[in-house]
Amino acid sequence: MKPDMRGETVLEVRDLHTHFFLRRGVVKAVDGVSFSLRRGEVLGLVGESGCGKSLTALSLMRLLPKGGAQTIKGEVLLNGENILERTPAEMREIRGRRISMVLQDPQTSLNPVFSIGDQLREAIERRKRAPNTEIMKEAVEALRRVDIAAPEQRIGQYPHQLSGGMKQRVVGAIAISGEPGVLIADEPTTALDVTIQLQYLKLLKRLQAETGMAILFITHDFGVVGRMCDRVAVMYAGRIVECGPVRQIFEAPQHPYTRALIASVPKMTGPIGRLTTIEGQPPSLMDLPVGCRFASRCPLVEQRCLDAYPAEVRVGDAHTADCWKVTPA
């Protein structure tokens, strides 16, 4: 195991803005996101569908969808280097080696006409030049590392011959084959059943312990957050509205949206009742309000909430929230 360097900041995102420029107007999908990630840490990024989680990840990777998406402002500092200033050719060298990503659906991440071995070999060759026999030996070891049985056999198979859980493990093997310092996992357990989910989460934690990599874990499942993450950032309508250690967020959430999300999680003990719901809908990202973006759904709304967006308030050790009702520490 590599020496513990927890505390060293490996990724810092400052005031990131990624917008879609459409004929109908500008969609402010990521609109002022800031956070940091330390070596050996898992940061959870949670929020409703459409809040900007996945687009934030794609912005960090410089893999924005074609058709109007553009990062117009901000910095993404990877080990102190702003990778938003790197050329496309330079980014191809950075991806995989220094920062990698596991996408939601392994079926669309793997090329169906290439064997598992070919796809792993391509990822390994981006990191090192070696004879083909040595590369394939390392590919087999990469599959063994992610707990795939009979890796010597699987290396010659194609994606359609593997189960969903196996394909997700292969995607993970490809992502870590370049030995990146930062791994972005975008809802990697969504398509897996509960038993396989648990196995995959344990696998990620083990790989992190072995390599010391930092993980940005995107999910909408607070159960996964409680099991996987050291800190959690809650995202709403393109912005992070609360961020802090997992225990503090769970025990004393400060932002009304965070409290509503936690309250909507089914309880496994106590009397059975109706699930708590969040009334209303998020605002249109093409027509965002001047004030707090949760104001139209918030039971604590005041006039000042409508007049201006609240400043970030520090409410504890590494715990912040954007809310007029929060009392500073």
List the helices and strands and how they pair.
Layout: E1 9-22, E2 25-38, E3 42-46, H1 53-61, E4 69-78, E5 81-82, H2 88-94, E6 99-102, H3 106-109, H4 116-125, H5 132-145, H6 151-154, H7 164-176, E7 182-186, H8 194-211, E8 214-218, H9 222-228, E9 231-236, E10 239-245, H10 246-251, H11 256-263, H12 303-307, E11 312-316, E12 319-322
Parallel strand pairs: 3-8, 3-9, 6-7, 7-8
Antiparallel strand pairs: 1-2, 1-4, 4-5, 9-10, 10-12, 11-12
Helix pairs in contact: 4-5, 4-7
Explain what this protein looks like in three dimensions.
- This protein is of the alpha/beta class and 329 residues long.
- Helix content is 32%, strand content 25%.
- The chain is built from twelve helices and twelve strands.
- The protein has helices spanning 53-61, 88-94, 106-109, 116-125, 132-145, 151-154, 164-176, 194-211, 222-228, 246-251, 256-263, 303-307; strands at 9-22, 25-38, 42-46, 69-78, 81-82, 99-102, 182-186, 214-218, 231-236, 239-245, 312-316, 319-322.
- The chain has an eight-stranded mixed β-sheet with strand order 6-7-8-3-9-10-12-11, with helices on both faces.
- Helix 4 (116-125) packs parallel to helix 7 (164-176).
- The longest helix has 18 residues, at 194-211.
- The chain is globular.
- It starts with 8 loop residues before the first strand and ends in a 7-residue tail after the last strand.
